[in-house]
Amino acid sequence: MELNTIERDDIGAAAEDLVVPPAATRKVFVKTYGCQMNVYDSQRMTDALATDGYVATDAVGEADLVLLNTCHIREKAAEKVYSELGRIRELKAERAKAGREMLVGVAGCVAQAEGAEIIRRSPVVDLVIGPQTYHRLPAVLAKARSGEKIVETDYAVEDKFEHLPRPKRAELIRRGVTAFLTVQEGCDKFCTFCVVPYTRGSEVSRPVAQIVAEAERLADAGVREVTLLGQNVNAWHGRGEDCEEWGLGRLLFRLAEIPGLARLRYTTSHPRDMDNELIAAHRDLPTLMPYLHLPVQSGSDRILKAMNRRHMAKDYLTLIDRIRAARNDIALSGDFIVGFPGETEADFEATMQLVEDVNYASAFSFKYSPRPGTPGAEMNDQVPEAVKDERLQRLQALLLKQQQHFGASLVGRTIDTLIEKPGRQAGQKVGRSPWLQPVIVDEKAGEIGDIIQVRITKTGYNSLFAELA
Ligand code: 5AD
Ligand code: SF4
Questions:
Q1: Which of 18, 30, 347, 466 is the most buried (most CB within 10 A)?
Q2: How confident is the model at residue 22 (pLDDT cuts 50, 70, 90)?
Q3: Which string of b and e fits 293-328 if b means at least 16 CB within 10 Å?
Q4: Best probe residue, ligand 2, of 72, 191, 267, 307 (max atoms within 8 Å of C-beta)
Q5: CA–CA separation, 145 vs 126, rounded Å?
Q6: pLDDT value for 11
Q7: Order of strands across the sheet with 4-6?
Q8: Could you say which ligand is closest to the alpha carbon of residue 231?
């Protein structure tokens, strides 16, 4: 374990002068940016902090500890953190005036990528902690409370999941009927635009027994739907209970046996790792929801090669055909990048053509953002911002049309819905369709956790309205 200590800054009073609240009355405010894995990690950090006497608060001004769990995937995401730190600086100064401590921590992928630079740029920060070291949070905080500035971003040799405390059953119940479960972290693919292999490190799979135990705990607390998470989730592999090597498909079959778990999902996948067993799981497991997020990024072979995606457009289309043959009601979602270095109008047209060919139910699309340290950032032929803007608009218009078309195709149909939470409007509850759309129903349609049959009556912008079938 490597602890870097940096000179403390002179903001507010010295730590020794401040009233340090006794354990059990400390409050932590956690703000999460980026992907679902950060959502999961934020919960695990909150769990780790609970053993240290911290309770979560939504009011940042009341917090003894502010943690920003950050995202580094695109420049915009990373910059948000610094503007937030500017606001926190004022809050911390106010609290210091009132004689109260406020520790400020930066966690997540910006922490991993920028390390001590964060404290140089934003001296309000007391601790920087990378995603592989969250289990050390209580120890790191003890040091930070004594006034040390701490940067902890080494890749731990120990398994962070083994060392992270488990949330109490009551806490799991409070979190609701859907849950994330990280099964894999890191990535060995090195797409040339992507920071993930640098911020999250190389691929690590959690052992089967750990995953099964966590899924059982979730089911026991009333969770009905579990989404398995990994940066490259379908590269997950491990030694199974039968001592054979399992892939994600086999793991899904095992998790489907757990009583109470009615729905399984996984995200995010790489096309190269969709193996036969995983496709068979889509065919044979009703528990596995018919929705697949399978990013392709581009429809141009030239760009796919420059991106180091390791497959061609045709391979992706053939794969989609095989998956649809296995499960014909599967809805597809994807990620796209426009304006990767060297992308010509013809390359972009190939992406539009691929989108037409696949017909997505939903998708995420981004302008290429050069990330320091990645090969893409060094490439010639960077595409002008205005061209990226224009292409993104065209692509998003097409994807939106497909998404609306998909929603409209469900009107009049009867589908399963998992009732998830109260609606924003009185008298309503919100459910989840098999294809991840929010489904608005009358609150009397069912209890939270029920899976009910509803008939879709109309579509909203991003949601469906339904009545009990
Ligand atoms: N610029 C733009 N988009 C990116 N993504 C990843 N890196 C970049 C980048 N440098 C997108 C990809 C990925 C999603 C999570 O974010 O589409 O699948
Ligand atoms: Fe990034 Fe995904 Fe490529 Fe890995 S497979 S480098 S996480 S885009």
A1: 466
A2: low
A3: bbbbbbbbbebbebbebebebebbeebbeebeebbe
A4: 191
A5: 9
A6: 29
A7: 4-6, 149-152, 127-129, 103-107, 65-70, 26-32, 54-56
A8: 2
Ligand 2-lining residues (CB < 6 angstroms): 187, 189-191, 194, 196-197, 231-232, 270
Nearest atom, ligand 2, residue 297 CA: 8
Within 8 A by CB and 6+ apart from 57, the residues are 27, 28, 29, 63
The C-alpha atoms of residue 72 and residue 206 are separated, in whole angstroms, by: 24
Name the region of 264 (left: φ>0; alpha: ψ -120 to 50; beta: rest): beta
> In sequence order, what are the beta bridge partners of 230?
none
Q: How does pLDDT run across 225-252, given as a tens digit for each residue?
A: 999 999 999 999 999 999 999 999 999 9
Instruction: Report d(CA 148, CA 144) in Å as an integer.
Output: 5
What is the H or E stretch that residue 418 is in? Answer: strand 414-422
Residue nearest to atom 7 of ligand 1 (CA): 194
Which residue from 111, 168, 102 is spatially nearest to 134, judged by alpha carbons? 111
Side-chain-side CA neighbours of residue 365 (13 Å): 25
In 3D space, the residue among 121, 39, 110 whose CA is nearest the CA of residue 72 turns out to be 110
Mean pLDDT across the stretch 95-108?
Answer: 95
CA of 374 to the centre of ligand 2 (A): 12
- Measured from the Cα of 35, ligand 1's closest atom is 15
Residue 450 burial by CB count (10 A; 0-12/13-18/19+): exposed, middle or buried? middle
pTM of the model: 0.92
